[in-house]
Amino acid sequence: MFITRQSDLRMNLYYLKPTIKAEPLIWQWYAWSYLIPPLTAASNIVERHLKIMQSYVQNPQIHAQAIKDPKLLGGPFIDLEGQKVDEVKALLEQTKKDCQELLALHDAFKETDRMIQAEGQGDTLEPFYNRILSPLKGMVELVYDLNNHPSLRLIEPLLYRKYYNTQHQRIVLSDTLTDFRKFVLSTPYLNQEDAFSLDISFSDPKIDQLFKLKREPKSLTEIQELFDIPEAKQELFKSFFTTEKPSLHEDRNYSGDGIRIRYFGHACLLVQTKSVSLLFDPVISYPIKDNEIPRYTFEDLPDYIDYVVITHNHQDHLMFEPLLQIRHKVGHIVFPANHRGSLEDPCVKLILQHTGFSSLIEAKEMESIPLPDGELISLPFFGEHSDLNIQSKLSHCLRLKGKQFLFAADSNNIEPALYDFIFESIGSVDMLFLGMECDGAPLSWLYGPLLSTPLSRAFDRNRTLSGSNFEKAWDIVQKLQCKQVYIYAMGQEPWLNYVMALKYHPDSIQMMESDKLVQTCRENNIEADRLFGRKEWVISP
Fold it and tell me: Which of 22, 36, 45, 538 has the lowest CB atom count within 10 Å?
């Protein structure tokens, strides 16, 4: 129980402070979408987490030096300044113990994959079923494509049924004093005195009750009935709440006759009319007192969001941290269908279902969702996925009140003819939103743990997670006859660095190429800008 006066328990109502951040963890690592499906999780545990922790335990000073080098930003180096070696070693051993089944699953998949790649030459694959190891047996089909290249087709629902476990999921609460966080793909989360770990699965409805407390207060008695708080942590937990009514921004809901668009940073845009609201790729900042960068925060979100739209399954577009906090007030989640049964393209629907989301709409290319005063059309999205056969990616044309908006995400215009067909389908675009991370990370940075056979250094460097450069982006602008063009900040907002690990300079190719697009658009009487922080547009119908 909370140590407080009984009158305080009965009479005062408490809100969750808007500055309280809620970091989702699994096995003490920041939870992103590839740590939910059992097999992609197993691959990342073995090929990323264990290797990074083992390297740190063996030589922490190499990691400490690497973190200081801007050229190695985002690399496989733990950011703990060479300290806490014993804690990392303990987590390493605990992970091996807790994840034994997943480690065996990883080994079975990699061995089976290498076997059929070496021996599957076009003859029947039926004899190979007897050689599949037991952790994978019955959950994978051996298949050829029409060019006789063998592969494994995963039966994902069966893998979830046998291996998915929420035991090591938790939400860590702490007060936000700064935007800075360590890069989460290479640094595990170690216990901190000023943080409280809520041992709860991501699908638990208590999470929704917790975040409703930002606007719907309860007494401390009611709050303590939701969560079992150890006595040693009661005062810390209580400090996350306040009796002061939050200063919710009065203009968070839109009731005008036109269309209002707000940019929340990175690729996150909120589109509102008085009849419908859509939030694209939620990445939401917490409020930072006296911060010099203007921003929209959770307090600027409307009371209800009709549609959350996910463009693709990357860690900076499908983010559990904001999604879990707004889950209680979201009508539907729209997301791209995947390439069924492939390791590199896990089913987004299963990921969302197993983390507690419902009212899911699985969208496919050229399909449409009717909206009040318009529709949402899903369009093909090429590139930015290292030439892998990943289909869980869509750009979206939003038609509202006679206007057309294209949210092209990180599309790389590698096939200009595609946009000829798109123009034939949707016509000219009033506002284009596009990422231009045109010199992205190599394939191995994100997908390396999934590979059974390492890729050569040259091929790895050539197959990148890159978006359009100036030439490709300008071709999109011309083909779609865009009237306004806006480029995402591409991870430059400080509240994104913990998942992006990017730091550009004016002479970085990404900045130079996007500057060139802005300049060329303006020279051709097209309104253009590279976004940063926040921006608002109000468009007449």
Answer: 538
